Amino acid sequence: MRRRRRHGIQVKTAEQVELMRAAGLLVGETLEMLREAVKPGITTMDLDVLAEQHIRDHGGVPSFKGYHGFPATICTSVNEEIVHGIPSADRELRDGDVLSIDCGAIVAGWHGDSAITVPVGEITPEEARLLEVTEASLWRGLAAGTAGARLTDMSHAIESHIRSQGSYGIVEGYGGHGIGTRMHMDPLIPNHGEPGHGPVLEPGMCFAVEPMVNLGTKDTLELADGWTVVTGDGRRSAHFEHTFAVTEDGPRVLTALDEGREWFTKLGIVKAGK
Predict the structure, then answer these.
(1) CA-CA distance, 74 to 225, in Å (whole number)?
(2) I need a surface site. Which of 45, 50, 110, 270 has the fewest CB within 10 A?
(3) What is the rounded CA–CA span in Å between residue 218 and residue 101?
(4) If you compute the radius of gyration of the chain from its CA atoms, what whole number of angstroms results?
(5) Is residue 259 part of a domain?
(6) Which residues lie closer than 8 Å to 146 by C-beta, 6 or more apart?
(7) pLDDT tens for each residue of 98-124
(8) Following CA atoms 138, 91, 29, 242 in sequence, which dihedral angle do they give, to the nearest 10 degrees?
(9) Are 189 and 151 in contact (CB under 8 A)?
């Protein structure tokens, strides 16, 4: 069936959303497997090997590997690394590290994209709070992704929650995006901004929402590898992401194992996907 576009945004049929759910579920299951594997002594390359094997064994293709030359299946960003960290056999995780894992998979031509940030062993209360605030801001943004809302309503929901929780650096220049037959599609979804701007959200539109939050300032630097983005002040960062579909019944989170029901119930949303 021909794919439609509104405002330059790909609009999926119900059948196409189901294909995206298959890709999203594979990504979600891969990330949960990796979460359990994270421990002091494991290398980021060990995690990458596990991810690729799991995706391919379950009928998927890694989205990231070869994307504009990226050499790995997942991004592994440690401590002050915000996004796009490259897995390495020389990067052994240590107790007290904070690790962001970003993962994408393609199933039947459709993409899923999601990220989690996990502690390695024991982390400080300040760092644990950073993870909590960042993840909660993601779900606030997802909850704002309802039919009839405007694109920046999601941006504003993310920023408002983070600002209400303390003094954090909200990363600029990187953000969420449309997703479907390609991993990165229009539009860009900033993690800050005023509500009520941008296209009206319609059922069948799919987006990846991904706040990145720093303990210090919002300033960033890109390393010489051309990929890894780090905090400008060397303090730690967190990154969470989910792919979701706009539906008549509310946002359906395609990369969450339960499609978002637990988190949406916490936020007081009765209808959360199918």
Answers:
(1) 16
(2) 270
(3) 20
(4) 17
(5) yes
(6) 201, 246, 250, 251
(7) 999 999 999 999 999 999 999 999 999
(8) 20
(9) yes
Domain extent, residue 158, equals 4-266
The answer to whether residue 205 is domain-embedded is yes
Helices and strands, counts by H and E, the chain: 5, 17
| pLDDT score recorded for residue 7 | 72
CATH number at residue 14: 3.90.230.10
Per DSSP, the three-state class of 171 is coil
Amino acid sitting at position 218: K
> Which ranges of 78-185 would DSSP assign to H, the alpha helix?
125-143, 151-165
In a domain, 272, yes or no: no
Tokens 């943004």, residue located? 141
Burial letters 211-238, b for 16+ CB under 10 A, else e: bbbbbbebebeeeeeebbbbbeeebbbb
- State the Cα torsion 17-20-26-32 to the nearest 10°: -70
Name the residue with tokens 């997703």.
179
CA 67 – CA 16 distance, rounded (Å): 23
Global confidence as pTM: 0.95
**How many domains does the chain fold into?**
1
In a domain? residue 28 = yes
